[in-house]
Design goal:
Layout: E1 14-21, H1 28-39, E2 43-45, H2 46-54, H3 57-64, H4 66-83, E3 89-91, H5 100-106, E4 109-113, H6 118-126, H7 138-153
Parallel strand pairs: 1-3, 1-4, 2-3
Helix pairs in contact: 2-4, 3-4, 6-7
Amino acid sequence: MTYKHNPDGAAEADPSSVILIGPTGVGKTAVGSALARLLGCPFIDSDHVISLRHGPVSNLYAVNGEAAFRRTEAETIASLVGSEPRPFILSLGGGAVTDPGTCELLRGLMVVWLDTDLKSVLPRLQAQAHRPLFAGDLAGRWQRNADARNGLYA
C-alpha cells in the first residue's frame, strides 16, 4: 500500500494493516474479508470479537445501553490493535469513531472510510433484523447517524 494522505500532520500511516470505518451496513465486513483474502492476512471484525467475548451486540445494547456498549467496543478495539500481529484487516462498528480514545488510537494507522448513501444501504439493512440502533425508523435513524458521524469518519 502506498496511500499516504496526511491532512492533519499525524504520523505516517502504518501500511501493514488496514482499519475500515464507515456507517452501519456500508459493507466493511464484506470488503474487509475480500481484502484480507487478497492480501493473505487475517480479517477481524470488531463486532464479531465483541460477540465472542461478551455475547451478541444486540443483547449488550438491550441490557446495558449504548454508552456501556461503546465502552466495551473501545476496550475491544484497543486490545485488538495492541495485540494483533501485523498485518491484519480490521473492520470497526459504525459508531466506533464516536469514542475519542478510539479515534486517537487510529492515528498513525491506515484507516479507510467506506461510504454509501441511504438508497444503496437500505435494502441491506432491511434484510438484517439484528441492528439494535435502528429499531423503529430505520431509514431516518441511519441517515441521522451517518450525517452526525461523517465528520468523524473524515
